[in-house]
Amino acid sequence: MAYIEPAPIKDAENPLESMMERFNLAAEKLGLSEEVYNVLKNPAKQVIVSLPITMDNGKIQVFEGIRVIHSNILGPAKGGIRFAPDVHLDEVKALAAWMTWKCAVVDIPYGGGKGGVRCNPREMSKGEIERLMRAYTLAMLDVFGPDKDIPAPDMGTGPREMAWLMDEYSKAKGMTVNSVVTGKPLVLGGSLGRTEATGRGVMVSALAAMQKLKINPFQATCAVQGFGNVGSWASLLLEERGLKIVAISDISGAYHNVNGINIQEAIAYRDGNNGTLEGFKGAEKLNDPMELLELDVDVLVPAAVEDVITIHNVDRIKAKLIVEGANGPTSAKADAIINEKGIMAVPDILANAGGVTVSYFEWVQNRLGYKWTAERVNRRSDRIMKDAFDHVYEASIKYDVPMRIAAYIVAIDKVAKTYTFRGGF
Ligand code: NAD
């Protein structure tokens, strides 16, 4: 299953501007000075390289590689590398800034970065992808580094590519440097608990929000859209904590059972059925999979793709709480109506930050030359997620804003204060 952090902002013509809209709202509430505003709105570093690769047919093809460091004021930059045909600088800049806010919200000592190579990995052989990844790494040798910029997988890349990156970087440095990248295979220094980390963070955020809303988990119902890494782990862990999961879905459709779906059974079914829920008998298939979002449940977890809650369906949403497992599942216009309806939405940069938190633990373990148990990883990430939720909740009360804007406020405030103390302009 894919390991992506974070996703694209596909609906916007200019993703950077779309990200800046929410940034602007938070900056205004905070009364951010114009000087700091101008610093934060521009990425610290943008690197574009040409990567000539010998393809399997013997011809040389040139690919464009990008790496953007939005900010490294809080620590080394952190962010994925995507291999996709539509990678472009504005998108990478927006995603790098998004990583700055995400890391700051959960208070881990990282700045934000993002990278990409414009290519279509689906049409490339394993050998071509490996040569491209190695060439990209060599070209970014001065950018990457455990104390400078730590990449991770994103769309179109995974543990295999991270292993190649680590190997190429290590060869160039003349020693094994596994802390230069996260999302590695376990045997190369990947962390236990990373697979379930994002779903686990969704569960912690949901329980914390339910406590504030006085919803008893043992009497609560929940619908989860998406049954991949994030959705299935969130479903399982929420079920374990008493919630009745009445609907789940994946690309094959949505499945509803008012008596509750047995999530262990659904996962076992999916795993034995080519990764899909198609034909699952533990629930009834809904005619329209989008109906899942409109069910009369207490908690709704969109954990599939972006832009599923929009002005076209937001009026029909009945959940009291939305916990964003996916990146960008709610469009900015729908945001306003969610707020009017009094629904609490725990935003993506908070709710799905469990993944980057355990990536941070991977780096910490690599630097210590030590391996933590899954229990230690889970305990520490649960605490970080709960503290971050409380912090954002307090900000939402203090500034009288929804949780989404409060999350941006917490993040921007932290980065801005650090700039003020460090100074040096
Ligand atoms: P995944 O590929 O493992 O699973 C995606 C799931 O969504 C699959 O079950 C797929 O069938 C389903 N799906 C796709 N389109 C759908 C649709 N239109 N309706 C219903 N279901 C649909 O991906 P994932 O890692 O679980 O990521 C899901 C979301 O969470 C993405 O937005 C991703 O960026 C975000 N996210 C993931 C992580 C992570 O650690 N995996 C971290 C942060 C954010």
Number of strands: 12
- The CATH topology of one domain corresponds to Rossmann fold
| Rounded radius of gyration (Å) | 21 Å
CATH class of one domain: Alpha Beta
What is the averaged pLDDT score?
93
The neighbouring-strand order within the major sheet is 9-8-7-6-10-11-12
Q: How much of the sequence is in beta strands?
A: 15-25%
Number of distinct helices: 13
Most strands sheet: 7 strands, mixed
- Taken in chain order, the helices and strands follow as HHEEEHEHEHHEHEEHEEEHEHHHH
Low-confidence region ranges: 1-8
Helix content: 40-55%
- Which ligands occur here? nicotinamide-adenine-dinucleotide
Please state the overall shape, judged from the principal axes of the Cα atoms: globular
CATH homologous superfamily label of one domain: NAD(P)-binding Rossmann-like Domain
Distance between the termini: 44 Å
Structural class estimated from helices and strands: alpha/beta
Entry keywords:
single chain, 425 residues, alpha/beta, Rossmann fold, Glu/Leu/Phe/Val/Trp_DH_C, NAD(P)-bd_dom_sf, Glutamate dehydrogenase, NAD, nucleotide-binding
Write a brief caption for the model:
Pfam families: ELFV_dehydrog (PF00208), ELFV_dehydrog_N (PF02812). This is Glutamate dehydrogenase. The chain has 425 residues and is an alpha/beta fold.
